[in-house]
Amino acid sequence: MTPNAHQESGHLVDVDLLWNFKRTYERFTGGLLRISELQANRSTLEAALANAESSDSEDLREAARALRQWQPLQNANARPVAAKATPAAVEQVEAAVERHATVSPLAIGAAALVCIVLALLSWWKFSEPAAAPVAVAKPPIKQAVEKDAGRAVAAAAPVPVAAAVLPVPVALRIHGSNTVGEKLTPALLEAYFKQRGATEVTRTPGNVAEEQYVRAQLPNTSAATVVEVHAHGSGTAFADMAGGATDIGQASRPIKPEELDRLRPVVGDLTAAGSEHVIGLDGLAVIVHPSNPMASLTTAQIAKLFSGDTQDWSAVGVASGGRVNVYARDDKSGTYDSFKSMVLERFTLKLSPAAKRFESSTELSDAVASDPQGIGFIGLPYVRTAKALAIADHDGAQPILPTAFTVGTEDYPLSRRLYFYMSSKTATPMITDFVDFVLSDAGQDVVRSIGFVSQNLQAAPPAALSDAPPEYAAIASGARRLSLNIRFRPNSDDMDTKAQRDLKRIVDYLAAHGTNRVTLLGFTDTSGDAKQNRVLSARRAKAVAEALTARGVNPATVRGLGAIMPVASNDNDTGRTRNRRVEVWLS
Questions:
Q1: What is the dihedral of CA 311, 316, 320, 324, to 10 degrees?
Q2: Under the phi-then-psi rule, with left for phi > 0, alpha for psi from -120 to 50, and beta for the rest, what region is 251?
Q3: DSSP codes, 355-383
Q4: Which one in 87, 125, 291, 364 has a CA-CA gap of 20 to 30 Å to 110?
């Protein structure tokens, strides 16, 4: 037997040939095969080969022929060969022995070989996309192992298997952010399928934590439609897109320049309007135990608390004092990436090495809520029973609580956008249809129901204007502000991808509420000359006015106010970007 050939359930499979067949099969059929299923069950392999041999693709037929022509595969009764087991495999079998009162000697070899294959599959795991789990009846196996100088010696014993079913093809794969993927994406999928008339929609947990499948039985279809959702962190969205392991990347932060450059040759420009989609908004809430008397913090204070520079609560005004216990998301998390860029890196600090790290947002929040000395950061829907603090962007600024309106306008200092990324080159009709649903009013209602901030608009009177410049106060007095800000690409008058969608939302809102008197106020950051900033802010407001006019709305007032009324600090790129905006007012 060649080194890359493996046996289980009475048949041998060459791994190189099998991988070639799997990849070719998935490319030409859209179905998803699991190496483990093909190795474990001869019937499953035969079904896949028969499918391939009837295909119109010569490449797929050739891959099937190559696999069939491998000599050991032709002989289903090929003599089993002893194989070495890893120490971990031996331990697994020994543990199984303790769970069974009697042991069949004939099962010894089969049990050891099963463990060998499991060990090998764990090594292959990171390069094999998972198929939807398929329920296959398996008989109980009594396990044992013979030891010989620390080795497990496999004895021949055929293992009976139930009739196999080819793995259900996965119609759509969505990988990435835990913040987005834990609850929001599955809820969006359920609502989408129900709107499309599905008679049955269910969720099935995957084989590992943070993975699940959403299944739906759509009208006029014989097989269920299955969507795979993996939620291991925003960084995995772009890694999996690079490897072709996902169709949509879900992220709680924008794509990084280095990720964009790496993916451009593979999937095109992911910041283009057809590829980057803001699916909702979120506020990074800084949370403490409900008994903590602290009401607000500045971003500088937050940075020192999370870096460990401030280690006692008395340093920020908590009279009872006590050690500060820091809780944070893991390194793969988009929530952590956002917090790091908006808070820690702004003050040239790093997260405390003593911080307790979590992959799950829910678990982190619950841990803080049970620790009177704890402090953590989390997405807005995961505050749960903890206490969220008001945040001031800098000393002297008004502390702002994270609410639907302050996050919707992105005035709250720790607000952020949630994204779907997809390649417009390879988007299927289902992908496009699903994303369109997510961006619709119905999809945004689901976003709100999960606890994130919907992009469906609301209008509200301004906050207190006593500290506002007279020019701003005169315009805002008696008016109502829409819950969005139009923002622009860096160093450009071109509106960003969210703004292009927001224009339609503005028009739809005006039509639904019977008002058409619109005021547009443009703003800049403090960089450059004040007079030039006035001109630039007016140009941005005018660009929005022209876009609305083209859609049948003629703004009554279009004005540039330069760098007044900043919503964030101008001492960092993130703050300056948020200050470059156009506010929309109704009167």
A1: -30
A2: beta
A3: -EEES-HHHHHHHHHT-TTEEEEEEGGG-
A4: 125
